[in-house]
Amino acid sequence: MAIYENLTIEKGMYKPGGYGLTQTLEKLDPTENYKGTPLGELDAFQRQLKRFDIKVSGPQSDRVEKFFGTTSSAALFPEYVGRAVRQGMETKNVLKDIVATTTHIDGMDYRSIAYVPNDADIALQRVNEGANITEVNITLQDNLVYLRKRGKMLVASYEAIRFQRLDLFTVMLRQIGANIARTLLKDAVNLIINGDNNANPADTYNTETEGSLVYSDLINLWGEISPYNLNTIIAPTHEVKTLLNLTEMKDSFAGHNFHKTGEMITPLGAKLIHDPDMNSGRIIGLDKNYALELVIAGDVSTEYDKLIDRQLERAAITTICGFNKIIVDAARVLEIN
After folding, report:
1. Are 35 and 136 in contact (CB under 8 A)?
2. pLDDT tens digits for range 314-334
């Protein structure tokens, strides 16, 4: 009998800080041991689903109650919930288009580094023989990265969902994840505009004409962010509509790409991200390769003990994240005054 069929799954396999069941199972039953076999396409958690014949998707998906047939299979339920929420976060995740790097930490205290380059740093002056080389100062931020706990409370009795298909239940869990991702974008936008408690709000510029956003304003924004590249623009609903109605957007290859794929790319080559929660009257331009660091304390966390014991009346699903500005000048705000 294969190793995965002999494992006893229990609550203790979930670790504090959102350390998921999959990581624990991978240590006990490494996927690399299954290379070259049909099971090699599954990770340790998916092999457990196969062991208990639990189908979580497709037209033949099982009912929620299938998880609770045995003590071991019940212990798989919180990991299933966490995975479905993460899928929803990834579906609506635009952070990859604005974050330069992601840092995972184990605690709640994290102090990042800061780099404020000047013209001499960027120019890299010629160094004559015996002359001093220009210094580049990288320092610790004055304040800790502010981490926020975001999540939703899953409220449903076991009796209400036990006969529901897992495929349908997954859709609802994905929506929770999508809402968390939307809130994280809101946090990132707020930090770019107002700074991260280290006295570093983004520089702000005004449009040429009061109350109007035109193509020349995008050109000016492109120039202001130099020597960094304007590869991402974040805008609220009203400003996205304005940008999509620009003649240059309609007649350019960017407009053709939007009509064909729905992906919004401006004529300048910058990806356009819609943030419905952002206040109207401004847009953000940034170089995604240098602007932001995403700090994550653990993975998506579920109240696994309640979920295993079928106490679904109030079970929290949370994540703890924060943002840090890496290079302040890599982001600019255009005010439509």
Report:
1. no
2. 888 888 999 999 988 999 999
If you average pLDDT over residues 46-74, what whole number do you get? 93
> Tokens 């229990």 — which residue?
10
Q: Which amino acid is at 288?
A: K
Half-sphere exposure of 55 (CA within 13 A, CB side): 7
Q: What is the pTM of this model?
A: 0.83
Bridge partner list, 206: 335
Residue spans per domain, the chain: 3-94+146-181+299-320
Q: Are 42 and 29 in contact (CB under 8 A)?
A: no
Place of tokens 């929420």: 85
Q: Burial code of 277-316, b = ≥16 C-beta within 10 A, e = fewer?
A: ebeeebbbbbbbebbbbbbbbbbbbbbbebbbebebeebe
Calpha distance 139→136 (Å, rounded): 10
What residue type is assigned to position 249 of the chain? Answer: M
What the block records as the tokens of 204 is 């702000």
Residue-wise pLDDT tens digits, 81-100:
999 999 998 887 788 889 99
